[in-house]
Design brief:
single chain, Ribosomal Protein S5, domain 2, 3 domains, two-stranded antiparallel sheet, rod-shaped
């Protein structure tokens, strides 16, 4: 089990300078990746994204890659466009011949002319390779952080499941007494009315009333959902969505128990169930 909330940062020194990578992930329904990196890494962004998708299934992932070059390193190469420079000189000579002037272009004029100085990107393949290795290293640290937090959340959820099982078991112990209270109440009502009911008719009406407050099926489904949840806690693959679905089912059973309640004991127990289920839901929002 992994949490979707984590942070990791790593750095690496290269011959050209220092690369740093920070990855932050928070809870998100699907996998949403945002990468902010230097321009020379844009061509490698697809590989970076594939690496993240291979390791993470859900969450909003923010990746920040920065490069701090050494003093003697330039990521662009500047060259003189000799062909354009010759054309400019030829044009100046033609204009002087036509106008009978002796004007000339000075060095600053040539330097400002578009495309006289050509900037070409330097070979950054070494940096791209180092960046891919760095992001793998950072993802490994991120996964370790997500697993540590996931283990803590797993312990919390396991404790909450124990609470659900205890509340469910307590409700089962309340049922016989509640049913007996219902029988006594119906008999007392008949006695107050001074009516002698036929035994068959009384038993039929009693069965109808008991059926209305019967919560055996809801308790059985609660036990089944809790057992399934305990199984999912042991899985290594992402199971956050399935857990979220189970939370809806658990909450539905707790609501039904509350609506069928014929005594304060079961009403209070259903509220306790919903409180624990809501606490679990809050934790599950961060599970991958």
């Amino acid at each position: 089990m992994q949490s979707m909330t984590a942070f990791a940062a790593e750095t690496v020194e290269t011959e050209l300078g220092r690369l740093s990578c920070e990855i932050k992930s928070v809870n998100q329904r699907f996998l949403d990746i945002t990468i902010k990196c230097p321009d020379f890494l844009r061509t490698a962004e697809h590989e970076l994204r594939k690496t993240i998708e291979t390791n993470l299934a859900r969450g909003k992932v923010l990746v920040f890659i920065n490069f701090y070059p050494n003093d003697q390193v330039a990521l662009t190469e500047m060259k003189v466009n000799h062909a354009l420079l010759s054309q400019l000189q030829s044009c100046v000579a033609d204009i002087n011949d036509t106008l009978g002037t002796t004007e000339s272009l000075q060095l600053p004029h040539f330097m400002r002319w578009p495309d006289v100085i050509i900037q070409e990107p330097a070979d950054t393949s070494q940096l791209q390779t180092a960046a891919l290795a760095l992001i793998n290293q950072t993802i490994t640290a991120l996964l370790a952080s997500r697993k540590r937090e996931g283990a803590a959340m797993q312990a919390v959820l396991a404790d909450k499941l124990k609470q659900l099982k205890k509340i469910t078991a307590d409700i089962r112990t309340f049922v016989p007494a509640i049913n007996q209270q219902l029988v006594d109440k119906m008999k007392a009502r008949l006695a107050d009315l001074d009516i002698e009911a036929q035994p068959e008719r009384f038993e039929q009406e009693l069965a109808i009333q008991l059926q209305k407050v019967d919560i055996a099926e809801e308790l059985d489904r609660l036990d089944a959902h809790v057992a399934e949840f305990e199984r999912m806690l042991t899985l290594s693959e992402p199971s956050g969505r399935r857990m979220d679905f189970l939370m809806q089912e658990l909450n539905r059973e707790a609501n039904t128990i509350g609506s069928k309640s014929a005594a304060m004991t079961t009403s209070n127990a259903s509220i306790d169930l919903k409180v624990v289920i809501e606490q679990m839901r809050e934790q599950i929002q961060n599970i991958e």
